Amino acid sequence: MEQLAGKTAVITGGASGIGLAMAHRFGAEGMNLMLADIEVAPLAAAVEALRANGYEVDSFEFDVRELDQVKALEAGTRERFGNIHVLCNNAGVGAGGQVAGLDDIERWRWTIDINLWGVIYGCKTFLPGMIAQGEPAHIVNTASMAGHLANAFMGAYNVSKYGVVALSETLSREMQVAGNNVGVSVLCPAFVQTGIADSGRNLPAELHEEPTEEGEAMKQIMDALVAGGIETEVVADAVCDAVINDDFWILTHDDIKPAITSRANDIISNVNPVPYMGG
Q1: Domain limits at 36?
Q2: The pTM is what?
Q3: How many domains does the chain divide into?
Q4: Contact partners, residue 181, CB within 8 Å, separation at least 6
Q5: 29 within a domain of the structure (yes/no)
Q6: Contact at 8 Å (CB) between 74 and 127?
Q7: Which residues are tagged catalytic?
Q8: Is 122 helix (H, G, I), strand (E, B) or coil?
Q9: What is the mean pLDDT of residues 98-115?
Q10: Who's near 38: CB < 8 A, 6+ residues apart?
Q11: Is there a domain that residue 94 lies in?
Q12: Is residue 3 domain-resident?
């Protein structure tokens, strides 16, 4: 998609973090913006900030876990702006979970529903219209380096992000085989300065638990790693470049790439996994 000005972008998880940075970047390119998020106050603040910059923007409060609400987002965007040219399936949470852990199945379900099913719902809902309109279009699915490197104690997150990578590769190949007008990218950052370590703020009330000493220690580690991550604007620039250049892989952390190569070599050499302590 060489020309973005005047086109429309939909961004889930658009009220903060990477999603909001994407909105600012696409807005600077002259795109119409539809931001979707479950957090009402941050969403309103994001829209106000974007409008202050002169961008054409609207918002949609929704829960990415609910297919009917994703369908309503698509319909509402078309009613507001017409054709949809860029979809960023970006909403996500950072919850982990040990495979051997007890009594956390519903937290696993919550994580996978948002991180993976939210992306599936987005693709399934928006693709038919994006294909039918016949104009160049692009889908960006937010995965993670956890979609390539499955570290310990992050089971639900790893499963969801590996799923997003697999979904995106499948979709890219399907679009090429069909000769369709929709490009695909998968975003795989390591640590970025976002609020992902505080994903628990959006937990349903029935899933809230008293913090444990181990959980607090893990959160402190995550807070430090996230604080040392790259800025969201760097990620947004990489996403915009990928959409313009029709690049599939968006790998924002060059220092992590050798670990992906090492994993691939381990697979073909039949080397057992060991704990990975990087980003």
Answers
A1: 8-268
A2: 0.94
A3: 1
A4: 130, 131, 134, 135, 136, 137
A5: yes
A6: no
A7: 157
A8: helix
A9: 91
A10: 61, 62, 63, 64, 91, 202
A11: yes
A12: no
